[in-house]
């Protein structure tokens, strides 16, 4: 089986034509997925919307916004059947580079406390928990808090 580094991975701008594939990934990955309208609004608003493709097939997507020296990772998703293969780590590294290119000094994100795999990934990449947003996410039992995490882009050094 080929590893991530042996496959052709491309990161590029997301386009309206990609949204059908993006939505398939989103709806298969999350119990409470983003809608078509949300993605369309992000594209129209000029957010940094990206897709990751492997061998020409979209396998992940992200939405990043940046202003006034800060970036906020609003959404990142890798196809559920391809998780735990290093693609998420590779994608988040690319997102960090995009935040730097966009002039951010700090990159923020929210994550569900129940998403231990994502929390571990972010921590190993240098993100630190800086707070909580009460009742941020919808959940089967009502609402779930969000952990707010941040990466200081002026100090970070992502090991290759």
CATH homologous superfamily placement: Gcn5-related N-acetyltransferase (GNAT)
Give the CATH class.
Alpha Beta
Which spans have pLDDT < 50 for at least 5 consecutive residues? none
Number of strands: 7
Computed over alpha carbons, the radius of gyration is 15 Å
Helix- and strand-based class?
alpha+beta
Order of SSEs: EHHEEEHEHEE
Please estimate the helix content.
25-40%
Helix count, DSSP H or I runs of 4 or more residues: 4
Distance between the termini: 22 Å
| Gross geometry | globular
Q: Structurally, how many domains make up the residues? A: 1
Characterization of this structure:
With 160 residues, this protein is α+β, with helices and mostly antiparallel strands. The protein has a single domain, classed as 3-Layer(aba) Sandwich (Aminopeptidase). The chain is 28% helix and 38% strand. It contains four helices and seven strands; from the N terminus they run E-H-H-E-E-E-H-E-H-E-E. The protein has a seven-stranded mixed beta sheet, sandwiched between helices. Strand 2 and strand 3 form a beta hairpin. The longest helix is centred in the middle third of the chain and has 15 residues. It is globular.
What is the compact description of this entry?
This protein has about 160 residues and is α+β, with helices and mostly antiparallel strands. It has helices at about 20-30, 35-45, 85-100, 115-125; strands at about 10-15, 50-55, 55-65, 70-80, 105-110, 130-140, 140-150.
């Amino acid at each position: 089986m080929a590893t991530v580094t042996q496959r052709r991975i491309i990161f590029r701008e997301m386009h309206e034509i990609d949204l059908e594939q993006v939505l398939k990934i989103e709806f298969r990955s999350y119990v409470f997925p983003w809608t078509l309208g949300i993605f369309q609004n992000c594209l129209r608003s000029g957010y940094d919307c990206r897709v990751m493709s492997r061998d020409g097939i979209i396998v992940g997507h992200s939405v990043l916004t940046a202003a006034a020296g800060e970036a906020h990772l609003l959404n990142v998703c890798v196809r559920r059947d391809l998780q735990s293969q290093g693609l998420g780590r590779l994608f988040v590294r690319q997102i960090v580079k995009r935040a730097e290119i966009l002039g951010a000094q700090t990159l923020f994100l929210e994550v569900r406390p129940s998403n231990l795999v994502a929390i571990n990934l972010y921590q190993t990449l240098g993100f630190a928990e800086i707070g909580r947003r009460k009742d941020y996410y919808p959940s089967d039992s009502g609402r779930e808090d969000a952990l707010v995490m941040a990466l200081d882009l002026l100090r970070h050094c992502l090991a290759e």
